[in-house]
């Protein structure tokens, strides 16, 4: 088990660093997510969820739909969130980057002050992650982690995103029950040795809350449901077989199904609650957001970071 976690962690760490190097002005998001997901497979893992590329005020759950033509631009604050699993044991990591080239933009489009604020915001989420990890050990209460994250981000002059949290993980389960808070809310639950946690602070200069958008590009199998439509039944069977209860995207199913028929079947599966749709999340006031994330395994006197 530990070996699988460590292998998954090594994979996503390598892929994260390689992917950050190719992010540039004019890069299609779909090329970035395809690069990340294919590299995870090439290195011996499988994607634990579709690669998330959330830009500026978009905070989470954006992955390219089929035919996505969205381009990354100079000055964008890009949050790259990726995960791999080995035998169902998951490593989850994220990093934020300010896309180079903003220095050449007209001052009316992108000021140096704006750039420095966004770079500082990236530092805030990164330091909050490091400080949170330094507090983690068996017996620590979850509220202590949240307080550390909140205080660190506030010391930079920003706010944590209060209604997004980290999460515990188990084999095949990306969110297995524990929420790792990013604010100092009352939570006396004590960590136990062997807990596997994804710790992920988000920092913003907005109000510090996210809200659902209409778009849904990531899904998860919930339960078998009776299907009149044979095609929808076949899609449901493929989803259950290929991804179990891990998140997936419609894009991954295009090798097996015609796009138009697949889209129709996906609507049926959502309506019947056979699959769960994750809405793209954005900062409620439209402010930009940074993110940093590592996966750790709790030990008696600290924790082991598997995604460094």
Count of distinct strands: 15
Largest sheet, if any? 5 strands, antiparallel
The H-level CATH homologous superfamily of the largest domain, spelled out, is: Creatinase/methionine aminopeptidase superfamily
Strand content: 25-35%
Q: What is the helix content?
A: 25-40%
Q: Mind telling me the C-alpha Rg? A: 19 Å
> What kind of assembly state do the chains in view correspond to?
single chain
Lateral strand order in the biggest sheet: 8-7-9-14-15
Structural class estimated from helices and strands: alpha+beta
pLDDT average, as an integer?
97
Q: Regarding CATH, which class of the largest domain?
A: Alpha Beta
SSE order and pairing:
Layout lengths: L1 H21 L6 H14 L3 E2 L4 E4 L2 E3 L16 E10 L2 E10 L13 H24 L6 H14 L3 E2 L5 E3 L10 E2 L15 E4 L2 E3 L5 E12 L8 H14 L15 H13 L3 E9 L5 E3 L2 E6 L2 E4 L3
Helix pairs in contact: 1-2, 3-4, 5-6
Please give a structural write-up.
By secondary structure, the chain is α+β, with helices and mostly antiparallel strands. The protein folds into 2 domains: 232 residues, Creatine Amidinohydrolase (Alpha-Beta Complex); 63 residues, Arc Repressor Mutant, subunit A (Orthogonal Bundle), CATH 1.10.10. The protein contains 6 helices and 15 strands. The strands form 4 sheets. Strands 8-7-9-14-15 form a 5-stranded antiparallel β-sheet. β14 and β15 form a beta hairpin. α1 runs antiparallel to α2. The radius of gyration is 19 Å and the shape is globular. It starts with a helix and ends with a strand.
């Amino acid at each position: 088990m530990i070996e699988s976690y460590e292998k998954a962690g090594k994979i996503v760490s390598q892929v994260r660093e390689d992917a950050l190097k190719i992010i540039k002005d004019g890069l299609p998001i779909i090329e970035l997510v395809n690069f990340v997901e294919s590299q995870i497979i090439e290195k011996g893992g499988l994607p634990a969820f579709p690669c998330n590329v959330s830009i500026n005020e978009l905070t989470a759950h954006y992955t390219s739909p089929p035919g996505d033509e969205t381009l990354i631009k100079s000055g964008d604050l890009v949050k790259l969130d990726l995960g791999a699993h080995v035998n169902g044991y998951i490593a989850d990591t994220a990093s934020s980057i300010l896309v180079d080239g903003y220095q050449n933009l007209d001052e009316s489009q992108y000021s140096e002050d704006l750039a420095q604020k966004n770079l500082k915001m990236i530092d805030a989420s990164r330091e909050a992650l490091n400080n949170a990890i330094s507090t983690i050990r068996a017996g620590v209460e979850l509220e202590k982690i949240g307080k550390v994250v909140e205080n660190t981000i506030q010391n930079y002059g920003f706010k944590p995103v209060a209604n997004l949290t980290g999460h515990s993980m188990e084999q095949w389960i990306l969110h297995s029950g524990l929420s790792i808070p990013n604010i100092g809310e009352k939570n006396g639950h004590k960590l136990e040795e062997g807990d596997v946690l994804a710790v992920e602070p988000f920092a913003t200069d907005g109000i510090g809350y996210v809200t659902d958008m209409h778009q849904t590009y990531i899904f998860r199998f919930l339960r078998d449901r009776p299907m009149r439509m044979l095609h929808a039944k076949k899609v449901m069977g493929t989803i259950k077989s290929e991804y179990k209860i891990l998140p997936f995207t419609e894009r991954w199913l295009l090798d097996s199904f015609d796009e138009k028929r697949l889209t129709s079947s996906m609507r049926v599966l959502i309506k019947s609650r056979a699959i769960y749709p994750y809405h793209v999340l954005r900062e409620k006031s439209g402010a930009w957001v940074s993110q940093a994330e590592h996966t750790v395994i709790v030990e008696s006197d600290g924790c082991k970071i598997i995604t460094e």
